């Protein structure tokens, strides 16, 4: 994610200051070290860690900062937009998403299943694809194949070569996942596989698919970073 932002900035001849998420600072620091080893001059790529609110206020208020790029929650994005408006600072926002994956009745179902796995289950499900809308003529066929593939995903330590799903970012993420699932099931959805904490413990969660997700379910409205998705007919 950082390289997507840093690459164009470097190509345009800009320096930058990177503020990584508090939960994942080491990857940003490692990237900065690699940039240093690659010969990028000191001071071109900078990383600062600390309290997001205070650092964000400096980024938005300092006139030396010509542009701010942020990936994160919609709530924080609104705050940054208001703060940047004071100086009409250029701003790029990539905020909370709940993207659909749609399968029509003329689709190649095997390819659709593979595409759905890549769209949702990469990075332990921490992507913006959450909703699967399947044409009723192929709904059962798609779900049967999709559930079989999801149930076979191996959960564990990401340093092991055959592991496909790692842990969620923290315990709060696990609690949110469970609350979204509970809400969907209480509204009439059907659990097709998974739906609970993994026996490995910690922040591991079983790869999950739920079907017959009803309109109004929070799962269809809120960002959901987990190894799972909800399917409904169209």
From TrEMBL:
EC number: 1.2.1.79
Swiss-Prot/TrEMBL GO biological process terms: gamma-aminobutyric acid catabolic process
Class in the EC hierarchy, top level: oxidoreductase
KW Kinase (keyword) present: no
GO CC annotations on file: cytosol
GO MF, any single term: succinate-semialdehyde dehydrogenase (NAD+) activity
Family note: Belongs to the aldehyde dehydrogenase family.
Protein name as catalogued: Succinate-semialdehyde dehydrogenase
Origin organism lineage: Bacteria, Pseudomonadati, Pseudomonadota, Gammaproteobacteria, Enterobacterales
